[in-house]
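Technical note accompanying the year-one report. For the benefit of new consortium partners, we illustrate the data format agreed upon in the data management plan: each record pairs a sequence with a structure-token string. No post-processing was applied to the example shown here.
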Amino acid sequence: MKRLKRYQYERYAILCRDAYPKAFDHLQYGFSPNGRKDITNRWGQTIIRVLWREDGDVVVVFKGSQSVWDWLLNLVFVPSRVDAPQDVGHVHWGFHFLLRQRSRVKRRFLHQDFVKLSTSQQAELEQSVQGGDFQGYTVMESIESTVLPLLKQGKRLSLTGHSSGGSMAIIAAEILEQKYPNAVKRVVTFGQPATGYWNFKRLYRLQNKTYRICCDVDIVTFLPGIPLLFWHVGDLLWLHNDRIYRNMPSFVRIIRVLTSWLIRPIAYHFMDKYIRRKDYFDKH
């Protein structure tokens, strides 16, 4: 497995963070003026942004839970078979539903309301309704109809997401890789809960291209919290105590965090802690 480089990590992390607000200017991240398509959920809320450059690859950004209803879906962890050409086992029903729901197109503003908006707001609104051709499609079908013309141009896909958005990215990546072999370049998730059952982990095709980022004792990364029922996929990169640990077992992660909390008052007495904060003096 190739290592995830720092600039790649930073790029995906920033896109996942900035995807949440309604206002999103894709141009500031270097994407082409026409290199954006927003995909909405059943409520008309944007949950996925497909971004690309004319001379570069495609990044598909999945948002995490945005409403009480979305959070409740996290609790529906009964098995659901993935809608893919070849069997890949079972995944969390709630995360799978997020891809199988209908993509509802937002209604256009009345002209008198539209002209009252600033230029940037008008541009944002126009971008948000470009998905009009998705009416009646599921979210997964909307993703596929967007990326297929780009794949035909020779582009490849990077999928990234935070929390339940990371689980959506995992499932979507498997479906796309089955239909369009070698289309997926990498999958990078942040704070992602476990997505599938053991058979999904065993059959998942992108183990060597998937990076799962966890930070300290992020509780969501241990959910649904049923040992030996749900399993993670890909390469775990655990960020803890200024280091990156690879594929650290969950039990060991918990023990290490608890231990670090207990010894933290003593650890702050060591000289390396004082030296590490030398940059503070540049701010005073």
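Partners are asked to follow this layout when depositing records. The two ends are 44 Å apart (CA to CA).
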